[in-house]
Amino acid sequence: MVAYSTSKLTHGMINMICPKCEKNISLFSKTLNSFGKEKKCPHCQAALYKTMNFKKAMALSIPTVLAYLFILQPIFSIVGMHKGLGLAVLVMIVSQCSLRLTIK
Ligand SMILES: [Zn+2]
Questions:
Q1: Which structural domain, as residue segments, surrounds residue 26?
Q2: Cut 0.90: pTM above it
Q3: How far does Cα 37 stand from its chain's mean position?
Q4: pLDDT tens, position by position, 36-51
Q5: Out of 24, 32, 55, 68, which could bridge 15 as a Cys pair, Cβ 3.0 to 4.6 Å?
Q6: Distance from residue 47's CA to the centre of ligand 1 (Å)
Q7: CA nearest 3: which of 14, 16, 12?
Q8: For residue 58, how far is its CA from the centre of ligand 1 (angstroms)?
């Protein structure tokens, strides 16, 4: 059995679901952003591994790039925000959304 979960939007926040106890773990929580490959679920203490879902990353990239080019880039130029910074933020969001947690 392969136990894993993907990130999902809950109450407007991006959350990961613990594959063991099925509770929400915030993507911005200390647990998921700590150094080292092994993470611990703050609820059940299960050892979790963060892995990249490349298929999902590819699928997310296309609409994100389109949204960037046609919606966000003009906004960034109006507010005078550095375009590279906006793109970096988008890349970060896409990669965070493409992560999944796996129990070893
Ligand atoms: Zn858990």
A1: 4-103
A2: no
A3: 15
A4: 767 888 899 998 888 8
A5: 24
A6: 9
A7: 16
A8: 28
